[in-house]
Design goal:
Layout: E1 4-6, E2 14-17, E3 21-27, E4 33-39, E5 45-49, E6 52-54, E7 57-63, E8 70-76, E9 79-80, E10 85-86, E11 101-102, E12 145-147, E13 170-173, H1 175-179, H2 193-196, H3 199-208, E14 212-215, E15 219-221, H4 225-229, E16 240-246, H5 257-270, E17 274-279, H6 296-304, H7 330-345, E18 351-354, H8 372-379, E19 387-390, E20 410-412, H9 414-424, H10 431-438, H11 442-445, E21 455-457, H12 467-470, H13 506-525, E22 529-533, H14 564-582, E23 605-608, H15 617-621, E24 627-632, E25 652-657, E26 663-666, E27 675-681, E28 694-695, E29 700-703, E30 707-714
Parallel strand pairs: 13-14, 13-22, 14-17, 17-18, 18-19, 19-20, 20-21, 21-22
Antiparallel strand pairs: 1-7, 2-3, 3-7, 4-5, 4-8, 6-7, 8-12, 9-10, 11-12, 15-16, 23-24, 24-25, 25-30, 26-29, 27-28, 27-30
C-alpha cells in the first residue's frame, strides 16, 4: 500500500472520514515521534510517520483512505519507567478515539512492553518494574486494530424519551445475557445488540414497565492478563480498551457493531425506553506496572495514568484493577468528556452510570466534590442534561461517598440496599434506618438541594447474589471463577430461609417466593428510583455465585423456560410496577415532611406502631421487632402537573413485617380512615384485592411473618 499523508488538522482527535481520505489526530505531549500504521486485509502493515504536531497532537490527512480501514499507532520516546515514561515503538497501540475496534488482545504475542514479562520467553521475570528494559519484539499480531467508521445512519427522527426521574424504573442488564437463550429471538441475533432490540425482548421490557435500560459496559474491552492467564474472560466488560467503540462481541456481523448499536437505541426509543450506559472511566484494562502496553500506556503513560509520587514506575490504584486514570490532566478530562458527548450526540444514549465514580473525583488523594471532573460535567451543555448515575464509592481510603455527590447526580444508594436486606432478615435495629430509606433518604440527599429521585434504590445488582440466591444462600459458591472461592463478597446480608442452596421442601420454597415478593414490593413502594436487576423478575439463579464476572455461560444467561413459580413472580412484578406507575404517591417529587401540605386532610406521612398509635421516639430508637407501618396521603403531594393542576392520588397504609413471627397490627382509627381495603398482600403470589377484603378503622389484623400488606384508605 502507498498513501500520501498531508498535514491535516489537529482536531478532532481520532480518525475522521472525508470524501478524499481520513484525518488522523492523536495526543501525546511526551512522545518524540508517532507513526500511523495502516493494515490491509491480509494484515500487512504500512507505517507512515506523522510530520505535523500541533498543541501536542500528532496529525495527518491520509489521502485515499476510506471507512473500514484498519489502523493503529506507534509512539517513539524515552523508555524510562522510573520517570513514568514507557514509550516502545515495537508495540502497536490502539487509538483511544477509535470509533470501532476489531480483534482481541492475544497474550501469546509479545504485548508487554518490557523484558521479563509473562509469556515473554526472556529472562528477568523478577526484575523490579523501574529496572525493566524495553522488549524489542513487535506486538502487532496480538493487538486489536482501530477501524475508520462512516457515521452515516438513518435515525428516522429518533428522539430521546426524556423520562422524568420520578417516573423512571431502571432495569440493569447485560447485552448478551438477556437474549442468548430466548428461543423466540432469531438464532443469529441471540446475545447481540440486535437480539436485545428484537421484538420478544423489547415486548418483555414494555410489559414489565421498564422505562430505562442500564447496560453493563458496552465500550470495547479487553481481558486483563490475570484473568486471561487462568483461561477466563471478563464477561461483564469492566476493563475498557476503547471509550468510543461499541464492543464488537455483541455485533451479529463482523464490523457492524456501530450500526447495530444505533439500531438497538433506535428500537428502544421507539417503544419509549431510554438507554443508559455503565461506563468505566476510572481505570483501563492495561492494569498495573506489569500489565501489557496496548494503548494509553504506550501513547503517554504519564499523562493518562495516576503515577505514584514516590515511584513513578508504579500506579495509584483506587479501582483495585491496577491503575487509575489521571483526572488531574486536561487531556484525560478531555478524553472522558469527548467520549461522553459522542455517546449522547452520535449514538443517542440517554445517560450514564459511572463505575467507581469516587475515583474520578480524587484531586490529590481525597475525594473532592469540587473536583475538576464534577465542574466540567456541570457546565457541559450536553452531558449535564442527560441522566447521571454514580456508583459513589471506590476501593481507596475515604472512597465511600454515598450522599456526597453534587446536585446533578443520582447515586446507587448502597445504604438502601443494606438496610432493606437487614430488615428482611429480621434485624429490628434497622427500623430507624428503614424510615429514611423508604422515604427517599432525605438524610443523604436533601441538604444539597436534591430530591428523592437522587436515590437509586436497589436490592441486588450485577455484582452479588441474584434476588433468588439472596433468599437461598448465605454463603457464596464461586469455585467456578477459578480463584478458590476467594473472590466476591463474604457478607451478603442474606437469609436462606432455613436450608442452604436448592431445596425440595415446600415450606422453604413458599417462604423463598414470598421473600422475593417482599423485596420487590419494598423496592416499588419506596420513594426514589427503583432499579431491577435483569432476571430477578423471574427468579433467576446463579446457584450461589455472587461474582459471575467471568461466567460467559448459562450461569449468567437468562433462562426463559420458566417454571410455574417463575411465571407467577413475573406477573407479580409486572403488576407491581404498574401499581407504582398508577399511583404518584409512591414516586413523589419532594421529600416528605410529616406535616399537612397545602390544606391536605392528613399529614403527608404518618408512622404507625403495631398498636395502632403514631410512633414515638422510643419506638424508633429501641424497636422490638422489624415491623413498620406508614400512611402516605394522596392529597399532600405538593406537586403540579405540566398544566399546573395539583396532582392528587389515593392514600395508602403500608405495613411491613420482617420479623420471624406474626404480628398483630391495629389499623388506624377513624381519624385516619373510614375503611381500609387490601390492595397488596405478599402472602399471595398475585397482586390483587388480597384476602379479607375491607377492614373497619381500629380493626386488628394478623400481619404474617415476612410479609408486606398495602391497604387503601377509603372515605366513601
Amino acid at each position: 500500500m502507498t498513501f500520501t499523508l498531508r498535514p491535516g488538522h489537529h482536531a478532532p482527535l481520532g480518525a475522521t472520514a472525508f470524501a478524499e481520505g481520513v484525518n488522523f489526530a492523536v495526543f501525546s505531549e511526551n512522545a518524540t515521534g508517532m507513526d500511523l500504521c495502516l493494515f490491509d486485509e491480509e494484515g500487512r502493515e504500512t507505517r507512515i510517520p506523522f510530520r505535523e504536531r500541533t498543541l501536542n497532537v500528532w496529525h495527518g490527512f491520509a489521502v485515499g483512505v476510506k471507512p473500514g480501514q484498519r489502523y493503529g499507532l506507534r509512539a517513539y520516546g524515552l523508555y524510562d519507567p522510573a520517570a513514568g515514561l514507557r514509550f516502545n515503538p515495537n508495540k502497536l497501540l490502539i487509538d483511544p478515539y477509535a470509533r470501532a475496534i476489531e480483534g482481541v488482545v492475544d497474550y501469546r504475542e509479545p504485548v508487554f512492553g518490557y523484558v521479563g514479562s509473562p509469556k515473554s520467553g526472556l529472562a528477568g521475570t523478577n526484575i523490579p518494574p523501574h529496572y525493566r528494559v524495553l522488549d524489542p519484539r513487535d506486538s502487532a499480531h496480538g493487538v486489536p486494530k482501530g477501524i475508520v467508521v462512516d457515521n452515516s445512519f438513518d435515525w428516522e427522527g429518533d428522539r430521546l424519551p426524556r423520562v422524568p426521574w420520578a417516573d423512571t424504573v431502571l432495569y440493569e442488564t447485560h447485552v448478551k445475557s438477556i437474549s442468548k437463550l430466548h428461543e423466540a429471538v432469531p438464532p443469529e441475533l441471540r446475545g447481540t445488540y440486535l437480539g436485545l432490540a428484537s421484538e420478544p425482548i423489547v415486548d418483555h421490557l414494555v410489559r414489565l414497565g421498564v422505562t430505562t435500560v442500564e447496560l453493563l459496559p458496552i465500550h470495547e474491552h479487553m481481558d486483563e492478563w490475570p484473568i486471561a492467564a487462568r483461561g477466563m474472560q471478563n464477561y461483564w466488560g469492566y476493563a475498557t480498551l476503547g471509550f468510543f467503540a461499541p464492543d464488537h462481541r455483541y455485533a451479529s456481523k463482523p464490523g457492524a457493531q456501530v450500526t447495530e448499536f444505533k439500531t438497538l437505541v433506535k428500537a428502544l426509543h421507539a417503544r419509549g425506553i431510554e438507554v443508559v450506559l455503565d461506563v468505566v472511566y476510572n481505570h483501563t484494562g492495561e492494569g498495573g506496572d506489569d500489565g501489557p502496553t496496548v494503548s494509553l500506556r504506550g501513547l503517554d503513560n504519564a499523562a493518562y495514568y495516576r503515577l505514584s509520587a514516590n515511584d513513578r514506575s508504579s500506579y495509584e490504584d483506587y479501582s483495585g484493577c491496577g491503575n487509575s486514570l489521571n483526572m488531574l490532566h486536561p487531556q484525560t478530562l478531555k478524553l472522558v468528556m469527548d467520549s461522553l458527548r459522542y455517546w449522547v450526540t452520535t449514538m443517542h444514549v440517554d445517560g450514564f452510570r459511572f463505575d467507581l465514580a469516587s475515583t474520578l473525583a480524587r484531586e490529590t488523594s481525597a475525594v473532592d466534590k469540587m473536583s475538576a471532573f464534577f465542574d466540567i460535567i456541570h457546565q457541559d451543555p450536553i452531558v449535564s442534561n442527560v441522566k447521571l448515575i454514580a456508583e459513589p464509592w471506590d476501593l481507596g481510603q475515604g472512597g465511600y461517598q454515598v450522599g456526597n455527590f453534587p446536585v446533578l447526580w443520582t447515586e446507587w444508594n448502597g445504604r438502601y440496599r443494606d438496610a432493606v436486606r437487614r430488615f428482611w432478615i429480621g434485624q429490628a435495629n434497622t427500623v430507624s434506618d428503614m424510615g429514611y430509606r423508604l422515604t427517599g433518604s432525605s438524610d443523604l440527599y436533601e441538604d444539597d438541594g436534591r430530591r428523592p429521585a437522587a436515590s437509586i434504590n436497589f436490592v441486588t445488582a450485577h455484582d452479588g447474589f441474584t434476588l433468588r440466591d439472596l433468599v437461598s444462600y448465605e454463603r457464596k459458591r464461586n469455585e467456578a471463577n477459578g480463584e478458590d472461592n476467594r473472590d466476591g463478597w463474604d457478607d451478603n446480608l442474606s437469609w436462606n430461609c432455613g436450608v442452604e442452596g436448592e431445596s425440595s421442601l415446600s415450606t422453604v420454597e413458599v417462604l423463598r417466593c414470598r421473600q422475593q415478593r417482599n423485596f420487590l414490593a419494598t423496592l416499588m413502594l419506596s420513594q426514589g428510583v427503583p432499579m431491577l436487576t435483569s432476571g430477578d423478575e423471574m427468579g433467576k439463579t446463579q446457584h450461589g455465585n455472587n461474582n459471575a464476572f467471568v461466567q460467559d455461560s448459562a450461569v449468567s444467561w437468562l433462562d426463559w423456560n420458566l417454571e410455574e413459580r417463575q411465571e407467577k413472580l413475573l406477573r407479580f412484578v409486572q403488576d407491581l410496577v404498574a401499581f407504582r406507575a398508577k399511583h404518584p404517591v409512591f414516586r413523589r417529587h419532594r421529600f416528605l415532611r410529616g406535616t399537612r401540605v397545602g390544606g391536605s386532610e392528613l399529614k403527608d406521612i404518618t408512622w404507625f406502631h403495631p398498636a395502632g398509635r403514631e410512633m414515638n421516639a422510643l419506638d424508633w430508637e429501641k424497636p422490638t421487632d422489624a415491623t413498620l407501618g406508614f400512611l402516605l396521603s394522596g392529597d399532600a403531594l405538593d406537586w403540579r402537573d405540566a398544566a399546573g393542576e395539583a396532582v392528587i392520588d389515593d392514600s395508602f397504609l403500608v405495613l411491613l413485617n420482617g420479623a420471624r413471627a406474626d404480628v398483630l397490627f391495629v389499623l388506624p382509627e377513624s381519624a385516619w380512615g373510614s375503611r381500609w381495603k387490601v390492595r397488596i398482600d405478599t402472602m399471595l403470589d398475585t397482586l390483587g384485592e388480597g384476602e379479607g377484603g375491607e377492614f373497619a378503622p381500629g380493626s386488628t389484623i394478623v400481619l404474617r411473618t415476612s410479609s408486606v400488606m398495602v391497604l387503601e384508605r377509603l372515605t366513601k
